[in-house]
Amino acid sequence: MPDGLQPDLEEHTVEIEAAGSRLLGDRRRVFTVVAAFVLLIVGIYVLLPKVVGLHDALRRLSDPNWAWIAVAVLFNGLSFLAYAMLFRGILGGPDEDHRTYKRLDFSASFAITTAGAGGVALTYWALRKAGMERRRAACRMVAFLVLLYSVYAGALIVFAVLLRTGVLSGEAPVAGTIVPAGLAASAFGLAALIALIPDDLERRITDLESRRRTSKLAQRLATGPAIVASGVRTAIDNLRHPRRGARAVGGALGYWASMIGILWACFHAFGGGVPLGVVVQGFFVGMAANLAPSPAAGVGTLDAGMIGAFLLFGIPSDTVFPAVLAFRIVGFWLPIVPGVIAYVQLRRQVNGWQDEDDRESYTIKSKVTAEAN
Predict the structure, then answer these.
(1) What's the CA gap between 153 and 285, in Å, rounded?
(2) Residue 150 burial (CB < 10 Å; 0-12/13-18/19+)?
(3) How many Cβ atoms are within 10 Å of 101's Cβ, its own excluded?
(4) Phi-psi region for residue 298, left (φ > 0), alpha (ψ -120 to 50) or beta?
(5) Cα(132)–Cα(236) distance, rounded to whole angstroms?
């Protein structure tokens, strides 16, 4: 995460609050958003295949094995449950008597997960509204992402080795196994180095720069690395805790396994024949396309990355195209409607938290006034 992490997230939370109020208060705007999503789906999954000459893929997309599509939808539901479990384990915190932790029960965790679909800014907004202070919320967000993507990186390494050694069947191109495994190992090394950054980095830099005009700038630049390092250590500490660690790791493993399950079921819906090891490795390699800038939350770029990954592993295009497009429909587009519903419910829940805080604040002020008199 970049330097100035907290200010950036705070700005996004303000935008989310304002945008949410405008959206929910204007039915025409809601209709416009829904219509835009529908048009985007039509453009990507109907018009684009015709333009680039993928008529067969489009035809096959309309004639899947619906039983396997139902399995894919089931895996999609499991992915949200697993993500909520990870959220509860890491972001809820270790102090079960804390008011914030009680507010972030499994129901709230599931609502946040469904409404935000993994979005960092919305999740941070929900944590702040639940009463978590800024630095702790940012630290927990980092720990959450570190644990989630540690499983991702670990899987890249493990399945690359299994494919290259022939333990799992399927093609094992260097670009799809050794290269991503090397990058994943480098990411682990970088995370280990970041964990060594001291907690009081900001204070140390401030002390060194105390007589210079650049003191405030240096402290601000140190905030990001310090929070990231604290988040990495928090993730490691959670792994050491028997109950929290099992919940968090189980949630992370369950989330990625469910996402792979969606893709596996979609391949079967269009004929199957893709080795499991290739499905797993191709999925994780293709997911790297999320790193590419996209104005539409990965729409288009992730599709292309996933398709390219499986073509790299030698899977026929007439199998890859419909399976990946179906995977994106089930895993990305289908949850949009329940996500909007969950967001409305989440805002109501947040308003309830705000009312509780207001009543508590009023009670404290009343006591202080009474004691003063």
Answers:
(1) 10
(2) buried
(3) 18
(4) left
(5) 21
Q: What one-character-per-residue DSSP string does 58-86 give?
A: HHHHTS--HHHHHHHHHHHHHHHHHHHHH
The answer to whether 322 and 57 have CB atoms below 8 angstroms apart is: yes
- Tokens 């990625």, located at residue: 256
- In the Cβ-directed half-sphere of 68, how many Cα atoms lie within 13 Å? 19
C-alpha separations of 105 from 31, 91, 102, 227, 287 in Å: 32, 11, 6, 25, 30
Its pTM stands at 0.80
pLDDT tens-digit series, residues 239-261? 777 677 788 889 999 999 999 99
What span, in angstroms and rounded, lies between the C-alpha atoms of 286 and 308? Answer: 7
Longest dimension (CA), the chain: 82
Helix, strand, coil content of the chain in percent (nearest 5): 80, 0, 20
CB atoms within 10 A of CB 235: 24
Q: For 190-206, what is each residue's pLDDT tens digit?
A: 988 888 777 655 555 55
Amino acid letter, residue 134: R
Select from 57, 284, 56, 53 the least CA-distant residue to 187: 284
Burial-class residue 227 by CB neighbours within 10 Å (0-12, 13-18, 19+): buried
130, 15 contact by CB (below 8 A) = no
Residue type (1 letter), 216: K
